[in-house]
Amino acid sequence: MNNKLRYPYNNIQLTFVVILRVLIGWYFLYEGLAKVFTPNWTAYGYLVDSKGLFSPIFRSIAENPDILAISDFINIWGLVIIGLLLILGLFEKLGYIGAAALLVLYYLAHPPLLNVEYLFPTEGSYLWVDKNLIMLFTVIVLYLFPTAKVIGIDRLIFNKNKAKH
Amino acid sequence: MSENNINKETNSNDLSGNNPDNDLQHKSDNSVKDKPVSQGRRDALKALATVPVLGAMAYGVYKKRKNELVNRSAADMFRFPTEISQFVPSLTDGQTIRLGIIGSGIRGKQLMEGLGFGTPEYVQDLIQQNRKDSKNTRYKDFLEQEDLNIRITAVCDIFDYHAEEAIAAGANINREGVNGKFGDRPVRYRNYKELLAADDVDAVVISTPDHWHGQMAMDAIIAGKHVYLEKPMTWTVPETYALRDLVRNSNVVFQLGHQNRQIEAYERAREIIEKGLLGPITLVETGTNRNDPNGAWVYDINPEANPKTIDWKQFDGDPDRIKEYLDYMTSAGLSKYIGPDSRDKFSLERFFRWRCWWDYSTGLSGDLLTHEYDAMNQILNLGIPGSASSSGGVYFFKDGRTVPDVLHTTFEYPDKNMTMLYSATLASQFKRSRKIMGHDATMEVGSSLTVTIDPKSDLYRERIDKGIIKTGEPFYHYVPGQNVDAVTSATELYFAERGLLYSYVGGRRYNTTHLHLREWLECIRTGKQPSCDIEQGFQEAITAHMGTRAYLEGRTMYWDADKEEITRG
Predict the structure, then answer these.
(1) Integer Cα distance of B357 and B339 in angstroms
(2) Is A150 an 8 Å CB contact of chain B?
(3) What is the pLDDT of residues B404-437, one digit of tens each?
(4) Which CATH number does the domain housing residue B137 bear?
(5) Using CB atoms and an 8 Å cut-off, which of residues 23-52 of chain A contact chain B?
(6) What is the pTM of this model?
(7) What whole-number distance in Å separates Cα of residue A118 and Cα of residue A111?
């Protein structure tokens, strides 16, 4: 039996990895809901204020009202859905991939480069490494240490299939 | 911890997906039959273990929203049922208006650009800027600026170089760079009176030095031309009355060039004050801070300028106006402010930097105080002050100028129980906001508005006590082009104050000069009164003159409203 355990966690390990998953889910979900509840919320300012190598792409999104509307929609509901997936442990891996994708975009839009200042005031001081990058790698690590098939709705979905074979 | 131990502890946490079944099989030997049911429950519990987290978030979000809604209802009084209507004057098809441009120096060129006519070099430069930096959209903005259905048929400037530029701009009907296809060249007139006599001119835009403003406007009205006149309205006090009489008794549409009239936020500011949301207003603080030679009127001297390319005689001014100026200066004992050069003596400095000498200028009062005053007059309906006192001096630019570079003027409005302070320096560009201070709240007025509630307010007492209104921070923020939201985030505030997001009217970026000219042209077509008409202009001019005289004479100037006279009290 022991040979079959690919990701053996003890209870404490499991508990804290699940808590981390839920916390990141919470963060995403509330970021999304806060935008849902802000009338006419838009990432316009954030995108216009983009710096670094990829800034022309982000600025061009801001400058095209149609594309901006689509990007705002995807951002808001992406955050909400990813948050729900991670908290509930539903399609966990999909949730991590989505979260990582958004975090990569946030990092590239506002990379903490040398000699770059943003209008958006940040609550810390960063050089190359910022909280987006740390969260991105946290999400990657979580992807490699999944938990939803033990604690999460994935347990019901995936285990049932396995039981049937 | 031994390996065995770990395995023992973790056997139910297997993530292969097989564990529950395995576990069950292994245990089935020595456990009771109802184990599968209990296992099913355990499965469900583990599957849904994190769902209560959503409940916690729902509770948190509900509480937070409720809190915000309370704040929002506290700010209800700052909600306005209507969007500010029509801040961009609509364009009727109407007639094509034929314009004459009198004076095409720095400001004249800007006005032509506001009308949609730039020199090919100017347009080329915009294209170049855009090529260098794709963020720079000034070229696109210029191309997208609406066509005003006008033609520039005539130009007049007494400096050949400026005249040629105006001709090139007037012919650049397709807004092209160098080597573009140009339209008919406007006729150049050497004397503005010849331009005013031309039949193919319906209206004129006057942007000459201050000492010519009133006279040219009067001559234009007599010639039956509509007038857009740069501020300040007049150079001498007597011509102020004469110009007003002429406009009142004519059918021309007169607009004074205070493009600030087109700033949407001022209209909202006016509504807030009319609703009494600031409480009794006792002090208004305005000012000017600039800190470079250009801001202090030390403009470049064009290398092509010389007595042959400049009509110095015409530059000097109208003899009647000069007499009024000299009469006042000598009678008030102010001879030291005249000159020091003789008016006859050709001077490139005086030609390009005329704002530095009273012989042609109205100083800080006429050039910059007028903008501040007009903004406040628009918002507060100030009218002419009861009195004005001024102080200041030439403290930094000791380049031979007679006009001060530091000036403070205090205007008293005893009928309104308030003071307006204007404070300026041309040697520091520290940012000072315009503030309208009331007993209940203070409003800062820029391209956006911020209202901060006063801790000692009576009007908001109850709400402050209940903690609904916080007094230390901006309570209401209005950003043009955005839906009004009383509880704005710090970030949004930050953006707005830096003008990054919202230098827009109704969601589009506009040049206010374009809007102000556009309003004037539409009034010509529709017969309506423009926003900065002769009555507003008269108030502006008298106010500025009172401030100037108070400085020159070193004593308080009073306004006798019955006699409509500036007096020394």
Answers:
(1) 7
(2) yes
(3) 999 999 999 999 999 999 999 999 989 898 999 9
(4) 3.40.50.720
(5) 25-26, 29-30, 33, 37-40, 44-45, 48-49
(6) 0.76
(7) 10
